[in-house]
Design brief:
This protein is mainly alpha-helical. It has one domain. The chain contains 3 helices and no strands. Helix 1 runs antiparallel to helix 2 and helix 2 packs antiparallel against helix 3. The longest helix has 30 residues. The chain is elongated, with a radius of gyration of 15 Å. 5% of the residues are buried.
């Protein structure tokens, strides 16, 4: 089993128990497919980091909106 396949298998397990959204799981599967089976560990790690960055931006936006619109810090 390739490292990418193992990562996706583990990610799917985490998604089933609610620790990862289905959107994140699907997005990373798509990104890994684009990279192909010969992708290096660094390329896979960069794809995961890009997803983390995307999620952190979403979380920061939600926090900012919660504070400004709902008055809750």
């Amino acid at each position: 089993m390739t490292l990418a396949r193992q990562f996706i298998t583990d990610l799917q397990r985490e998604q089933k128990v609610g620790n990862v959204s289905s959107e994140t799981e699907q997005h990373l599967k798509h990104e890994f497919r684009k990279l192909g089976s010969k992708a290096s560990h660094d390329m896979l790690a960069a794809a995961v980091q890009a997803e983390i960055d995307r999620l952190e931006i979403q979380a920061a936006t939600l926090r900012r909106m919660r504070e400004s619109l709902l008055g809750v810090a």
